[in-house]
Amino acid sequence: MSNLFLMNLFLAAGFCAVLGHLNVSGFLAGYAIGYLALWITRPLYEPTLYFAKVSNILRLLGYFTWQLIVSNLRVLWDVITPTHISKPGIIGVPLDAKSDFEIMLVANLVSLTPGTLTLDISADRKILYVHVMFLDDVEAMRLQIKKGIEQRVLEAVR
Asked: What is the span of the domain harbouring residue 61?
C-alpha cells in the first residue's frame, strides 16, 4: 500500500513541476490525476488496500463536512431565535477504537463539530464522555456518534 501512496505522491509532485503549479491546489489536482492513473492501472499491481483506504478517508471527510454544516446551522438557529431549543446533557459513548490515534481522532472530530464537546475518556479507555448541546434522545445520540464518526474513523484508519 505504501508503495502506491509514494508513487501517487511522486506523480502529484511531477504534475506540479511540469505545469508549474507549485501550490496546494496544483498538488491536490496532481494527486487526484495520479490516483486516477493508478486506479486505471490497478490490474498491473498486486492486491492492495490503498484504493479502499483513500475512498474511506474521503467518506470520512465528506461525512464530517456534512455534520459540520448541519451542526453549524442548528447552533445558528438556536442562537438567532428568541426561544432556545437546546437541551444540553452529558453522555457516555462506548468506544470500539483501541489505539491512541483512533481515540484521539474520534474525540477531536466530535469536539470540532458544533454542539458537541469531548469532556473525558474513562480510565480503561472504553467510554468517551461527550457534552451534547441538543440531547433529545440519549441512545440516538450515542448511535449517531458510534455509527457516524467512530465507524468512519475506524474504516479510514484500520
From this structure: 50-157
CA distance 158 to 124: 21
CA neighbor of 87 nearest in space, from 120, 128, 132: 132
- The answer to whether 61 and 109 have CB atoms below 8 angstroms apart is no
Return the pLDDT at 20: 85
Q: For residues 96 and 20, state if they share a domain.
A: no
Give the position of cell 474525540. 107
CA distance 125 to 4: 34
**Per-block average pLDDT, block size 10, for the chain (158 residues)?**
86 91 89 93 87 92 95 91 88 95 96 93 95 93 94 94
What's the structural domain count of the chain? Answer: 2
Same domain? For 30 and 56 the reply is: no
Longest dimension (CA), the chain: 62
Residue 89, classed as helix, strand or coil, is strand
Task: Assess whether 34 and 60 both reside in one domain.
Answer: no
Between the alpha carbon of residue 42 and those of residues 4, 14, 102, 146, the distances in Å are 10, 20, 29, 33
